[in-house]
Amino acid sequence: MLENTGMKTNDMAFCREKLLVRHSLSVKKLSSNWARCGLAFLLLTSLLINGCTSAPVPIAPSAPQHLDYLFPNVPEYLSGQSGVQDHNEAWRALQAGYLTQASAGFSRALSVNREFFPALVGLGYVALAERQPTLALERFREVLVDEPSYVPAWVGQAESLLLSSMEFEALRAYEKALALDPALDTVKRRVEVLRFRRLQNLITAAQKADTDGRHVAAAQAYSEALEISPESAYLYRGLALTEREIGNVGSALENISHANSLEPSNPNGFIFQAEILESMGDLEGAEQAYSEASRLDPSNINTARLATLRARLALSRLPPSYRTISDSVNVTRGELAALVGVRLNSILSILPRDVTILITDTRGHWADPWVRSVAQAGVMEVFPNHTFEPNRILQRGELAKTVDNLLIAIGNRFSEKVVDWKNHNIDFSDLSPRNIQYESAAMAVASGVMSKLRDGTFQLTALVSGQEAIEVVDRLLDIYEEAI
């Protein structure tokens, strides 16, 4: 084989020796490299072990875990403190979920300066993240004692109260934070949600209390609801209803009036306002409210009640002497003229008027307008000396004559609908058919407007009470209204 290579023996020995030297150098170099790698590995392991016990682990950027927490910013006058860096790193740890490291960082910042209150708020948020709302609340409140305008503490307090299921108190804290910083959109959304839920709960409570007859509690719930929604006509109506049940009529009127100003298209609100005003004796105000309700929805109004109210209102506008006619023991000619002129004005309006009639003794009398009205219509007599004698006591015969005149007027206007009472013969034990006043008395009795006395007499000269005169006039009005 050597022969085939053409190499001498000495040359071969030299090559073998050279190869051995190179192999030895390679082994030494490899050993040296392994030694260096091992040393580097030992140093790295040592650094890692030492780092676990002394140096902080860098916080890798990640999505914040507590978006509802508001960063406790450092005021400018504390920005030069040495704890600021620890404070900021602790907040990043909190948002990354490293609560132990966050707590340690805030505590270090606070240990440097006990007046560094942002770190105490940070510790409050750590307690909150650990679901310890009581501890968190203590920390936030401690800060707010000295720093009542520090918004992150108000937000933290609200979060703590919310975690404790104290929604109303949480709402108040959120509202305080929002008042201090209106740009907090997240807080604004929280406030809106909590207000809505609070409003729903209060309305439910108010309705239940009202149903149970606990009107004071219902009123309190409506009042609290109005603090949340001060522009709600519905709430003002509910409060007005409960206030009236309690007996606070003035407050009820104020609330329903406000409701109607907020929602002027609701007829029920005006009906309720009219009822309150009517109960208070304000007939003009009640009539206006009923009229507005009728304008909004004619089908929703009690026309009979409105008519009665208007009659009462008209009566209230009359002179005091008119309103006391019902109490009169002996009614006068002037009082009867006023009764006819006021209550039977619709009948007088269909009669021809004689405006040339002269009356000389009623000027200045409270019933003068109605005396002239009945005299011009020919319903009551003016004496030949042009006097009416309004203060003279009325007799039954005079009343019968007035009734007769009015029945004739109604019969002439509605002849097909009115019974002819002229041909009815009425027996009176004190009045013969030959008497000049018999026909009037007979017609008044036959029509049912007046009646005999218990002994069968009519007694033309008997006096008439105010109440009796009113009843006679009302019966005439009934006959007229049936005829039209």
Keywords:
single chain, 484 residues, mainly alpha, Serine Threonine Protein Phosphatase 5, Tetratricopeptide repeat, 22 helices, rod-shaped
Description:
The protein is mainly alpha-helical. Among the domains are: 76-183, Tetratricopeptide repeat domain (Serine Threonine Protein Phosphatase 5, Tetratricopeptide repeat, Alpha Horseshoe); 321-483, no CATH class. The chain is 65% helix and 0% strand. The chain is built from 22 helices and no strands. The protein has helices at 2-5, 9-53, 84-96, 99-112, 117-129, 133-146, 151-163, 167-180, 185-211, 215-228, 233-246, 249-262, 267-279, 283-296, 303-316, 320-323, 333-343, 345-348, 368-376, 396-413, 438-446, 466-483. The model is unreliable at 1-58 (pLDDT under 50).
Short description:
By secondary structure, the chain is an all-alpha fold. It contains 22 helices and no strands. Among the domains are: 76-183, Alpha Horseshoe (Serine Threonine Protein Phosphatase 5, Tetratricopeptide repeat), CATH 1.25.40; 321-483, no CATH class.
Query: Distance between the terminal alpha carbons, to the nearest Å?
Result: 156 Å
Shape: rod-shaped
In this structure, how is the largest beta sheet organized? none
Low-pLDDT segments, ≥5 res: 1-58
Chain-wise SSE layout:
Layout: H1 2-5, H2 9-53, H3 84-96, H4 99-112, H5 117-129, H6 133-146, H7 151-163, H8 167-180, H9 185-211, H10 215-228, H11 233-246, H12 249-262, H13 267-279, H14 283-296, H15 303-316, H16 320-323, H17 333-343, H18 345-348, H19 368-376, H20 396-413, H21 438-446, H22 466-483
